[in-house]
Amino acid sequence: MTDATVDTTRPTVIVDDVHIKYKTFASGKAASSTRALLQRQKGVRIVHAVKGVSFVAHEGESIGVIGHNGSGKSSLMRAIAGLQQPASGGVYASSQPALLGVNAALLGDLSGSKNVILGSLALGHSRAEAEENYQGIVDFSGLEEFIDLPMKTYSSGMSARLRFSIAVSRDHRILLVDEALSVGDKEFRAKSEARIRELRDTAGTVFLVSHSMRSILDTCSRVIWIDHGELKMDGDAEEVVAAYAEST
Description:
The chain is α/β, with parallel strands linked by helices. The protein has 9 helices and 9 strands.
């Protein structure tokens, strides 16, 4: 067995019997504080968003995560990223996962240009690296014409394109992409998918949450199907997507 073979099969993320639960009011609004819970205790219910999910991800894998709205996909990604504490079970990662979602925060009062620099610094780039990468990020986003305008003037699609462009400006050992490829035109989606493949090919691990089965099949070799919080199927991308399509 060669060293390359060993490297590409090294575990990067272990999800071990993870359960995620939320306390919400009967209206569906999340309980935001202990005081609120005490004031409305009778209206509180427990939502079991993820139910005993287990799997192992390896270096060089690009893994699609599919399922209906509310199936627990985003909750699972937040747990892998360390943003959501499981009620039980554990998540173990070889390095800090980076979660890229279309709702990632940028500062609306600042220009796209300033957000590019701030976003790069937030990713851990030095000031010199941020300035060096600036033009590449702007070019990738295709927003040069609008880059000096305040972010609050951008459409949701433009904002998502800029977030994605910033986030993929550096290599991530573990990258979680939640619906970020569903925005933009055909050309931008093609560039985004190509960049995801580049990240995968540098022995990183990529998780892609998407409702676009075409994006999943074009980008991923393995797919995890989450259904009502449970791991329904985990395997070859074409096989799992076909089974999912038959169920809908």
